[in-house]
UniProtKB/TrEMBL annotation:
Residues annotated as domain Transposase IS200-like: 2-111
Organism: Nonomuraea maheshkhaliensis
Name the record gives this protein: Transposase IS200-like domain-containing protein
InterPro entries found in the cross-reference section: Transposase_17 (IPR002686), Transposase_17_sf (IPR036515)
Domain of life: Bacteria
Coiled-coil segments: none
PANTHER family, per database record: TRANSPOSASE FOR INSERTION SEQUENCE ELEMENT IS200
Amino acid sequence: MVFVTKLRHQVFTGTHLTRMEEIRQNVCADFETELTEFNGADNHVHLLVNAPPKVALPKLVNSLKGVTSRRMRQEFRDLATHYYRTSRPWSGSYFAGSAGALRCCRACASTSSSKTARPDHSDAAPPGSERLFPPHYAGQSASPPA
């Protein structure tokens, strides 16, 4: 998932992002999901969330944005004063994509401006994932069935 700040304001620092990750881990635990990867910049954040099918994505997003917004404004006065009129640091939109068996490290490799990233994830796909993708996806020609 990707969340951007309202009007793409550049307001987050490394301290903000570190605390935001802790808050979002707690929210994910409440939804019985796992925050697998988190990184961000001064005006947006990237999350990789491992969620079971029973979790309603809009409800999870609403909680992630709402709880983070409320707690960050309570703990950091600079954010509260920056958003004094709207009281919402997040844009109303978000991006959510399904990664399947691929690792987020590949999908987020182009994000060079990450402030906090977890280095403990390898770039390798999980064992057995090669069965999920036909050979023509890997750039090989698929042979006709015999």
